[in-house]
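Could you please consider the sequence and fold following this short note?
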Amino acid sequence: MSDNSPQGPLAGKRILVTQADAFMGPVLCDVLREQGATVIASHDDITDPETPQRIVSEAGPIDTLVANLAVPAPSTRVGDVSEDEWRDTFAALVDPLPRFIQALLPGMRDQGHGRVLVMGSASALRGMKRASTYSAARGAQMAWVQAVGVELAPENIQVNLIAQNFVDNPTYFPPEIQENPKFQDRLKREVPLGRLVGAREDAQFAAYLCSDAASCFVGQVFPVCGGWVNR
């Protein structure tokens, strides 16, 4: 009799992916499933303060949360940033994180392990003009991950972040941008790799960070950006 049980480095893992229809969500779900995980793909609006707890309650036991968080990046001059822009960006990118961890912690503590991987941005690692709001929110994600990562590591709960930029995805680099000659020139000028990081390249690294092989990483920020930043 053939064995139809899931195979791969993530076999038996239950992984919750937020905003599964945006940013890195679709390719993450595909790669995680290919590697054996049971993926709970959430499409809910997580800016509602009550939503993270509901999602976690409905999902059942979770080994890993992939906090795939995205919002169209404002490009406002710093003197023109409105209160609404600032609040809305933090509401989408930062505020869901403590709500999710509070919802997940009881279950992860009961099972004796857990993992959180935030899909963030390298924009907080290198100054960019007209990006103060977005960069600040992405930087807040990094600070949160570093602090929570060292706090929860003794409980066998690892929290890490992928800081990406110049990665192929429909939210920030749709086809019309990629086809623009000015953008192609920018790639050659700013990105040592000379091209976008492939979506699957990024997702496969994320899958590795979700695997038992990556259990040694604590509160770390991993740039995935073709060399745009190297720290």
